[in-house]
Amino acid sequence: MGSTTSRPVSRRFVGAVAVGVALAATSGCTVSPDAVAGISVTAEGHLLGVMMVCGHHIDGATLYVDTDDVSKQVTVGSWTADRPLTPGLVAWTLDAPAADWTTTKSLAPLTAKTTYTLSGWTKDNSWSASSITFTPADRDRLTPGQVRYADISDNGDESAITVSLADFKAKACQKV
């Protein structure tokens, strides 16, 4: 028994599938994570960026207002490391000058009930850091020595957790 589908319909279907595959392939492009970003606070209450670099390098970090519309993302702070961050733990103040960091955009005051995201990047887009999303209320619940970061469960779900700095250092790279 022969096919009952006409050639024009088949061509349109194949064309639609090809377009769908192409769109899915290009829209899913992301920079591979090679680090984990988190936040903490100092004893004086200064906001800290915390980064656990897992394998290659990270060149800097950006804090922006979190939104689903990329065209509406507003950068509220940006920092470039004086030299690439290599595997290991690094922390720096976000709201004051920090040794070994150049502030490329000074931190704007954080607004209550606004969601922010801290992420890490490389100048050549070869690597990134998994980001942490937080509000000023989340920051206010932190105590010195704690780190808030996005943990990924075994089934792939992501949730923000708060752990000791030692636990962050020991476990953050396990799921990158």
From TrEMBL:
Residues 1-24 form the signal peptide. InterPro entries: TAT_signal. Keywords: Signal. This is Lipoprotein. It comes from Streptomyces longisporus.
